[in-house]
Amino acid sequence: MRLIQWDVQKISELVNLWNSEIGSAFPMTEELFTQNSVEDENILPEGSFIAVDQQGQAAGFIVSKRWREKLPIQIDGETGWIQALIVRSSARGQGIGSALLEKAEDALRNSDCKRVFLGRDPYHYFPGVPVEFQEAKQWFERRGYHPTGVESDLIREFSPDEETPMPELAGLQVTLIKEDEKEQLLAFLHRCFPGRWEYEAYHYFRRGGTGREFVVLKKAEEIIGFCRINDPDSPVIAQNVYWAPLFDEHLGGIGPLGIDRAQRKNGYGLSIVEAAVSFLRERKIERIVIDWTGLTEFYGRLGFNVWKQYEQYYKNL
Q: Rounded to 10 degrees, what is the CA torsion of 223, 227, 232, 233?
């Protein structure tokens, strides 16, 4: 067995490896893999490797990242991420996973990262280790990774004739953002939610977004809240629709969402989620996922239930 540098020519092979190991719960497509593990500028080439056997076939791989983009957005430059680490079942017990992880951690350490998270990267797949992967969690814990809590994906299925009315808020307007309001939305996110959500919106517009994925709450023409929605026609494969291949019907997604701190405690958060549901239902979406949240009780008020869960892990380098 030998390790080779990250090779985009092996995308199909790596996607097949992914699906053979965890595809029944987390089905991978070449389009998603390319978006998240090839095109992301934050991939650390010197920390991303493929293990190949004597026949030159992929037996495992690891993708590591650190913040590399030159943008005026607040992302911690001392944090690294392990996006994915997969080893073929028949090749386990040979030290392949340990070798891949060691190479990735060395590269992150050498690039001045002080800590590393499992998942949670820009263009991530998971916010942690899926809780059902008990062996994987124990494996990482033996290598110095510490659990910090559980995050959840939520889901709700609507019947075709179920009514999901748009909320009415006195003095406020709920609408989809217009393309010429892009800068207003980005300015709002930079002021109220700098960092990841601002970053994701920036890349959304960079990939051709027109605004149909952003529900906004306005007061006197000023944005005071937002909620992202996603469907099969969105220009980015967003995290809440990653696992759409599990279903025969189209999958919709909701999140993230946020309300200006000065406007909270008015019930606007729940209302903007109701609006997001209404917009997606207008697009004939009957199944909706909310990803990476700890607010299960909040979303439960609208009928969303826990679907998948992830244990978050970090390690100081």
A: 0
Helix ranges restricted to H, 111-181:
134-142
Nearest to 304, CA basis, from 157, 164, 161, 160: 157
Domain holding 84, by residue range, is: 2-125
Distance of alpha carbon 272 from alpha carbon 193, whole angstroms: 16
Distance CA 210, CA 208 (A): 6
User: At a CB cut-off of 8 Å and minimum separation 6, what does 75 contact?
Assistant: 67, 69, 122, 195, 196, 199
Distance between CA atoms of residues 170 and 167, nearest Å:
10
Contact 58, 14 (CB under 8 A): yes
User: With contact defined as beta carbons under 8 Å apart, do 216 and 177 qualify?
Assistant: yes
Q: What is the pTM of this model?
A: 0.96
| C-alpha–C-alpha distance, residues 179 and 173, integer Å | 17
- For residue 135, being part of any structural domain is answered with no
Could you give phi then psi for residue 55, rounded to 5 degrees?
-90, 0
Q: Tell me which amino acid residue 256 is.
A: P
Asked if residue 131 belongs to a domain, the reply is no
> What digits encode the pLDDT tens for the residues 238-272?
999 999 999 999 999 999 999 999 999 999 999 99
Degrees, nearest 5: CA angle 255-258-261 = 170
Q: Are the C-beta atoms of 93 and 86 separated by less than 8 Å?
A: no
Q: Does one domain contain both 161 and 100?
A: no
Q: Name the token pair of 95.
A: 């030290």
Check if the beta carbon of residue 68 is closer than 8 Å to that of residue 42.
Answer: yes
